[in-house]
Amino acid sequence: MAFGFPAQEVRYLPQSEGSNTLNRYLAFRVCRELRWPLVAITETTVTATTLNYAGSWNETFTLECLDGEIALRSVSNGNQLYDGGRNGKNIDLFINAFNSLKKKSAEIPLEDAYLEASLQEQAVLISQRLQPTPVIKQFYTPLSVLIPAPGYTLTPALIGINVLLWIIMVANGVSPWNANPEQLVQWGANFTLHTLDGEWWRLGTALFLHANLFHLLSNAIGMALVGLSLEPFLGKKGLAALYLSTGLVASTCSLFWNENIVCIGASGAVFGLFGFLCTALVFRSITHRMNASAWIAITIFVGLNLIGSFEEGIDAAAHLGGFGAGILWALGYHAFRTQSLWRHSVLALGFTLIIIGGNAYTYTSLQPRMQLFHYWTAMEEFAQNESIAIDSYQYNGDSTDEYREQLEETGLVYWRKNKTLLNRLNDPTLPKKVRALTKNCITYCTLHEKFIRYKLDLIQEKTSDEMPLETMELQIESIGERIRQQIQEVAREYKLPMRN
Asked: Among all residues, which ones are annotated catalytic?
């Protein structure tokens, strides 16, 4: 059993008999017998990958001819820290087959020139058969996930951006342990009321915000695991497109299902990457020898996060939406790699239908919500105008002329503004309860206008009867209470933020 970053085992055999060429040729034949896919044949080495089953997880096996000895090395793929004895079993299996074949070769000796020609021919065939295999970054220390390497630059950059932004937020007063939702909205969180009011950029900015240190670390670990596996194959541009597109889908799903909840975090995009990786492995769209470490990463991260997605405060809609988007991406990636015309046609038709259906669903589902949110936002202006108009009722002991001017130029003006606003909002397509609220608000404004006019008549001594004024005050109080009840009912039924 071996431990390491990654786990590996090395053994040395004496090169007592046979030349360098013979030993490499025998290694080539052994790999063929064991059905280990050959990766490379050079002047001193033969490299292959083991099979993928319970006792072997696509380890990289290399025979290297040194001066006077042969080095046999079996290396776990990806970032496996413990090999469960698999590397040792691979070497034992190879040695048994190698010694058996060596005895047979002694009975029928072959010239080195012939063997070398055969090896060179096989090396050419291997290079033609294998596409250039991306170099997968190895984890030699836990912090190496943050260090760029050939074929691994965008992932540490994305992690760095998320960490840097979190540090900036904390430096500006955001709590590192439990960020205030209002502060997160100010920094660009995805919040229905603001996003549907034209601030669509929040769908993207929310992907880089985190509520606390644990939230940041969990997403960074997931991003490192999946980025390590995908970036060498998709490249920087492909991974960036996948990350952003699945993240935007996740944010949109969150917008539909989590009304008036502040939604942030990279987990939707990370789930999109894992959805892609999972599907690509099933269809073998990426290198087969990645399967072991990739499946372990998927099982641990996706399993735990999906279980936790249904706890309170976790954005399950973003997780599932991102994962589904990643699956669609992977199906498209696989179809184009197969070079099949009918697959391309089906894919193009499928994506066209998805886009058309998605747009139709978005339009039909968002329009009523957007209309309702515009109404609710406009009611903030109503509340502000109401407060200014009611303040004009206060008599500060100034002259009656100044008080009359205050009522006319402030009170009446702002109640008229509110009536104009309400008439504009009185759309017959709004829900019945909302239209009833609008109607009562218009009546409320009309009563206030009558109240001010009668008060002006009293000031100008056109009348001395104050009884109608008291009656109107009771009517205003009654309908005001009814409006407050309606606001609570509408907010509760349509999941809108409460207004005073």
From this structure: 267, 319
